[in-house]
Every structure is written in structure tokens, then in C-alpha cells.
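Q: Hi! Curious about what Phosphate ABC transporter ATP-binding protein, PhoT family looks like structurally. Here's the sequence.
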Amino acid sequence: MIEVINVRKSIRGKEILKGVNLKVKRREVMVIAGPSGSGKSTLLRCINRLTEIDGGDILVDGISIKKYNPIQLRRNVGMVFQFPVMFEGRVKDNIAYGLRLLGKTATEKSVEKLAREVGIENLLDADASKLSGGEQQRVAIARTLALEPKVLLLDEPTASLDPENVRKIENLVLKLVRSRDLTVLWVTHDVEQAKRIGDRVAVMKDGRIVTVEDPEKILWSDVYVR
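A: Let's find out. The predicted structure is below.
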């Protein structure tokens, strides 16, 4: 589904990605782990062209991202961040925004369907800015799902959440992988989370992927994740 081929990226004169290679299978949850500053978030941003690569290539479904219109690419490859940004207004307004980006009419039925899919159907009239962190993350996921992505990029989406909401978001994403045939790349520092959710783990160090393995086979003491 995704192939990263010798990707390089420098930011302000510093080389962040130093020839990254990675293959992610369809409907796989690939965890990307590694110490801070190893290039994990930069790699995610490169995959949907929020950051342009300096060298190499990235293929999505066999097609180079360079051949995609960036807006279309970001519909196919959705991204959810650690701190979700809520647009002004109600939860239903935030979800409707995603539908309108796809050129669809945001009917009450279509908005409710997305809200139900992520478990926030009872919050549609709530002020999005006043929700808890876990609820806002669900709104962000619903807004992204409205674009009907094939790939979901998750940049530490549970890092600021309490343990109960961490497990809720994990279970939600794993359910969506099955129901929507999603392919997921999930950046995390949490070893136990990686073991719970990952089909495989790609370990990044100093701008390179040094190993890709089943979570239980990773020597976590060498990864330096908390």
C-alpha cells in the first residue's frame, strides 16, 4: 500500500531523513517508534506532502506522491495529530467540514453516520472547543474519515490522553482498520501501546529505519522509548 524509497529530507540545513526505506502492507497497522528527533513525525508529514521530500520517492498504491495533486493526496492519506484543532462551532459543524472538502452535501444523516462510527453521536450539538481531549480526538478522526481515506497517519494521537481514553482511541482505530480496510501508520513512544496495536514496528534512529519487526520481537531496551 505504501512504499518509502530512499527518502531524504533536510530542514534548515539539518538532514532529518537520511535515506528511509519502508514497505507497509494494505490493512496493516505499522507502528513507527524511536527516540525523539529520529525523524518519525517528519516521515509522516512527507507521506502526505505536508512536507516535501528532497530525494527518493514515496508510492501510495503504486503511484508516486509526486503525481498526486496535494489536496487529493491528503484525502487519500488522512492525518491525525497529537493535538487536534477544533474549528469554531459545534461538533456537527466540524464533521460537516470534512464532507464539504470532499464535495459532498453535509446532510444531517451523513454527519450522524460519521459521528456514530466514532462514538460521539450524543455530542453533535456540543461546542467542539469545550470537549475533553479524547472527545476532540474522535471529532478529528471523524472529520478525517469524511474524506474516505485509504491510509490513516497518526502522530502520537493519544500522548496527551488519560489511560481510559488511550484505550478507547486504540480500539476505535483498530475497529476502523477492519470496517474501512484502512492502512495505518502510528507514531508512538509508548512501548505497551506498540505491542497492543502494531502488526509490525519500524524502529527509527538518527533519520533511518534500522529494523522492522513484530512488536514482541523488538528489543525495546535498545529503542529508547519511554
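A: A fun detail: The radius of gyration is 17 Å.
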